[in-house]
Design a protein that fits this description.
By secondary structure, the protein is an all-alpha fold. The chain has ten helices and no strands. The longest helix is centred in the first third of the chain and has 25 residues.
């Protein structure tokens, strides 16, 4: 399969995940860029931020129209993560590729296990504690900057279980967090973007944006719990593969 077709196929899947689940796009984008499209781990994490920023902004618009975005909570959560994301982003380029891959895989395993255990909190949102929201946002920002992920696969569980948002609101609000964190981390890596393969990243991002619209429609028709479990199993298998590959 040609590089262009691989980029389009991977982008469509990643957009679908972001649109339907409010996260998971970048945790699939980085391995796809490394193993399917031949990017180095450092280049893949930077390219992933470009792709996820464009895709999450598109999905955010779609969820906003349905009233699924809590702007106050999401803004506090996201703002707290900007500085950690930028600081961690500057450190990522100094970390050995093997260590970066292992760290990414470990985070993916933890996220998959958390998603398999997660349940929807119900129809109502619990009151949000600002201090808790800021602390969770700062931690997520650091992960975003270091690993080049939007953080939605961690933001959705945090917004649902830690901050008490219902699942649909957690999914929509996480897209605001992803967009802000990705932009901050990308700004910290601005000097590393010159050598990126834009001929691959462009089609990848375009397919992801289109996939995000399909994912939003899919989320309204299919059980969120079923989508969540399928994605978690795929993510877990992918993380195990990355750990084995990095050990060889």
């Amino acid at each position: 399969m040609s590089t262009l077709l691989l980029a389009l196929a991977a982008g469509a899947v990643i957009g679908l995940a972001l649109g339907a689940l409010g996260g998971g796009g970048s945790v699939l984008a980085v391995p796809a860029l490394i193993y399917l499209l031949g990017f180095t781990p450092a280049a893949a994490t930077t390219a992933s931020l470009v792709i996820v920023t464009a895709t999450s902004a598109t999905a955010l618009y779609a969820h906003t129209r349905d009233g699924n975005v809590h702007w106050g909570t999401g803004s506090l959560f996201a703002m707290a993560g900007i500085v950690p994301a930028m600081l961690a982003g500057t450190l990522a380029g100094q970390v050995p590729a093997a260590l970066l891959t292992c760290a990414f895989a470990v985070i993916a395993v933890l996220a998959a296990l958390r998603m398999l255990r997660r349940r929807d909190g119900g129809d109502g949102d619990r009151p949000v504690r600002p201090g808790r929201a800021a602390a969770a946002g700062a931690g997520l920002g650091a992960v975003t900057g270091f690993l080049g992920v939007g953080g939605g696969f961690l933001a959705v569980p945090a917004l649902a279980s830690v901050l008490g948002l219902r699942m649909r609101a957690a999914v929509g609000t996480s897209l605001l967090v992803i967009t802000v964190n990705s932009l901050a981390a990308l700004a910290a890596r601005a000097g590393t973007a010159d050598g990126l393969r834009w001929a691959v990243i462009g089609p990848f991002a375009g397919a992801a944006v289109l996939g995000a619209w399909d994912g939003k429609r899919l989320a309204a028709k299919v059980s969120g719990g079923l989508l969540q479990r399928i994605f978690a199993v795929v993510l877990l298998a992918l993380a195990v593969f990355m750990l084995i590959d990095s050990a060889l």
